[in-house]
Specification:
The protein is an all-alpha fold and about 300 residues long. Helix content is about 70%, strand content about 0%. The protein folds into three domains: about 90 residues; about 90 residues; about 110 residues, Alpha Horseshoe (Serine Threonine Protein Phosphatase 5, Tetratricopeptide repeat). The chain contains 19 helices and no strands. Helix 11 runs parallel beside helix 13 and helix 17 packs antiparallel against helix 18.
């Protein structure tokens, strides 16, 4: 039956075999809304807006899911102006439509239009439509933060925190990023300290924020020894930030501590970053010693980093 066809098409699409999904779709004796939307979503996963539009044009009827799928297809490849054209052609909007377009408008640096759309959205009452409120405010918060409108972003953030809507990790991390990018490291740390829980992403952002804003070695060392979930990603971020800020001593200490304090074997990417840090600091002999001692064969990135530095 149609349900079985749809399940098999979806399975092929999720595994990346869009051609097989298309062959099955073309062979279907009858198709439902789900069939059309599933095939369109397969092209979206494949970052193919042209084929998504082709399926959309062939649909016997267009529901909101179909319109949103088309917006997603063009948004993924950065065609934000096309997203707006599609949005304003829609007979009806839902939360997903509005959120996609708020993001598109912010990417087009048209923040005033994004704010206007957000303010005009229906059913943004936190009691009657809490999920609408959460997702739309999250999109608006990210748009404000990316645009550097820190006061407006903070107002949106605190309105979410004081309501019945739970603030998710994306919102917390977006605020930390916004403050750190614009040099407000104390405000970034305030948000970080208020977080009910912290994942590796927010730790990475906070460590990077301290390093890029010229924090002392002692400050970063304290963060490492007070709860940071030390893993390869965290140390990669830390070395990147140390290199960006010229913190050679902290970079060296962190690199050595991977094995001795955290039982982690440094990967080629860690060695490459450390080589670049040492070479840029003029410590060529130490960099050469590290290059000869590392248990990996240098690749093109390693050589380019070392020689450029």
């Amino acid at each position: 039956d149609v349900v079985t066809w749809n399940m098999i098409i979806s399975s092929h699409a999720q595994s990346g075999d869009v051609a097989a999904a298309k062959r099955l779709f073309d062979s279907m004796p009858e198709r439902s809304f789900v069939s059309w939307n599933t095939m369109a979503a397969a092209y979206v996963r494949n970052s193919d807006p042209h084929s998504t539009k082709g399926i959309f044009d062939r649909m016997p009827l267009w529901n909101t899911v179909a319109w949103n799928t088309l917006i997603t297809a063009y948004s993924q490849v950065g065609h934000f102006q096309t997203c707006l054209q599609i949005f304003y052609s829609m007979p009806h909007w839902d939360v997903f439509s509005c959120n996609y377009v708020i993001t598109a408008l912010s990417n087009l640096e048209n923040l005033s239009a994004a704010i206007s759309l957000f303010d005009s959205m229906p059913l943004r009452n936190v009691y009657t439509m809490p999920m609408w409120n959460l997702s739309s405010k999250t999109a608006m918060l990210q748009a404000l933060a990316q645009s550097g409108c820190l006061d407006e972003a903070e107002e949106t953030f605190h309105s979410m925190a004081s309501s019945t809507v739970n603030v998710d990790m994306v919102c917390w991390t977006s605020m930390i990023i916004a403050y750190s990018i614009h040099g407000s490291i104390d405000r970034a740390r305030d948000i970080f300290d208020l977080m009910p829980r912290r994942d590796c992403v927010c730790w990475n952002v906070m460590v990077g924020a301290y390093a890029q804003n010229g924090a002392t070695v002692d400050t970063l060392r304290a963060m490492l020894h007070h709860g940071i979930p030390a893993d390869h990603v965290v140390f990669n971020s830390l070395l990147f930030s140390c290199g960006h800020s010229g913190l050679v001593a902290l970079a060296r200490e962190s690199f050595v501590s991977m094995r001795h304090e955290h039982s982690l074997e440094a990967g080629l990417d860690h060695y490459t970053r450390m080589l670049g840090i040492l070479a840029r600091a003029g410590q060529i002999e130490e960099a050469l010693d590290l290059l000869q001692a590392m248990p990996y064969r240098p690749n093109d990135v390693t050589w380019t980093t070392f020689l450029s530095a």
